[in-house]
What we know:
The structure holds 2 protein chains of 2 kinds.
Chain A: H1 2-29, H2 33-38, H3 44-54, H4 60-72, H5 86-121, H6 126-140, H7 143-157, E1 170-173, E2 176-178, H8 183-216, H9 219-226, H10 231-269, H11 274-283, H12 287-315
Antiparallel strand pairs in A: 1-2
Chain B: H1 2-6, H2 12-19, H3 22-29, H4 31-48, H5 50-53, H6 94-130, H7 132-147, H8 150-165, H9 167-185, H10 187-202, H11 205-212, H12 217-225, H13 230-253, H14 265-273, H15 282-309, H16 312-315
Membrane topology (chain A): Multi-pass membrane protein
Protein name (chain A): ABC transporter permease
Pfam families (chain A): BPD_transp_1 (PF00528), BPD_transp_1_N (PF19300)
Amino acid sequence: MIAFVIRRLIQAMIVMFVISLLSFSIQDNLGDPLRELVGQSVSEQERQELRDELGLNDPFLTQYLRFAGKALQGDLGTSYFFKEPALDVILKKLPATLELVFGATLIIVCLSVPLGVYSAINPRSLLSKTVMGLSIVGISIPVFLTAIMLIYLFAVELAWLPSYGRGETVPVYGSWETGFFTVDGLLHLLLPCVSLASIMLPLFIRLIRAEMMEVLESEYIKFAKAKGLPLKRIYFLHALKNTMLPVITVGGVQIGTMVAYTILTETVFQWPGMGFLFLEAVNRVDTPLIVAYLIVVGAIFVITNTLVDLIYGLVNPTVKLAGGKS
Amino acid sequence: MSSDVLAPAAAPSRWQRFKDSQLVHSFSRDKLAMVSFTIFVLYLLAALLAPLIAPYNPYDPSAIDIMDSEIPPAWQEEADERFALGTDAQGRDMLSTMLYGTRISLMIGICAVMLQMFLGVMIGLTAGYFGGRIDSFLMRLADIQLSFSTMMVAIVVLAVFQAAFGAELYADLAIFMLILVIGIAEWPQYARTVRASVLAEKHKEYVDAARVMGFKSSRIMWRHILPNTLSPILVISTVQVANAIISEASLSFLGLGMPVSQPSLGSLISSGFEYIFSGSWWITVIPGIVLVVLVLVMNLLGDWLRDVLNPKLYKG
């Protein structure tokens, strides 16, 4: 077990190392830090001296080590546009994005489990067929299109819900503000969360259904039925437990994926989160901010995946610990 | 995709065999599959023949009049009979622009999937056939690549290239960049599937026989094992093309894909988004429907193929 944990942690570190290497080479090649510092009026001679002084002429490895050392201390450079530490700028926007992911996850969990289980137990009922039909339609609609359609319907035509921004927020801790505790904030959250959920919900319904149907075919369920246990107990106690194991693994990985989709929803709803910030940074060629975003998002992916793997290794005794393959 | 793979059944005996196969048999009994396939073929034809059937050429600036902008489709008031589905904000005929857009979307989707397939099959075959260290290294790589979502990788790579090249040069290269990025980001899907099938096939007697006869590894891999992994490849290919088209549309929506002067379905939707608030819904909604129907049909075909070629998954 310890070997498995160590192996998994080493892998996480290697991946983070590669991400930092890639981020650094982006920083190295994109934009010119000197131009941001001194402007046009400085002579070529002085430029070269400044370059030497700043260490921009050092070999790649030296520069990378300096970058990595600073990054480990939480210093990812200063944003050209905001004139603030890039990491701070990103972290200030993180709550808005996490709120979106959390709201969407809530919708997904509340809907996918009952619908998936129901359509696995009653595969021939009308409701199951409708759910399965709708889920394949849902998979086929890109998330940004769902968002646009929701805006058109609820914000433009019916004018029930707001179409952009976070609305009224209340401070929770430091710069962490949330829209979960005000009516206005919740109304603003509704459409973005629904559109973000719309891309994952069908996947989860189908996954839970498929897993559950497989479990229902297994010997121990047949045995439980033969023993005369109440059906409800079999379905929700015995079957659901084994259904959720793979679902949780996939789910953990999908939370990372959702961070990617927040870029799309945030753009449509002009949600002031990390993804929106990243696209703005790209348009302004704000290199330190781009790099900081890459490292933060890379870390989110690596941490969630590592945690999911570790939890899966703990929960599922059949996983091959030595090879680390699930 | 299915038609491409199945069509070259030239010799009559093969055609007969194809006609009697389980695939065709279940196809002729499944109305949904037939409808989906018909619509898909119509899309393919529309995409191929776009320059011939489109009433206007949306790439020709001299044929576009800005005075014609934002004309609603024919069934609305204030419509213009020259433009059956209305015009977009630049005064381009929606029907023609969408025909060309479908052509670009489908082309990017199919080319990207061909790249995925090429990389995935090569890597999957190598990993599955040789096993050992090569296998575990390649599969770890696939795990890691899969743990970062395609969307994320594509957005980051394209955004960095756009910032590095500048928007104008990027617009010229967009189509190749999209194919490359979507193609490279999704190879693990194929690699895993192919590897799993290879592992199942590897120890069968016909492979041992081929080895005893002294054939080289490469020949056994390509000529003997690969043909037996084709049906899972076929199943994922339909879904992968659908996904690639969605990815392309999403990237174009973010302004990282096809430029407005040469729009795919995604960039058309994107260009109409700002006009939705002023009531010009058709610029967004009509290409949106075209896109969703295309992707839906491919997903339905993919589902049907999975049911037919791999029945124990669903009927179990």
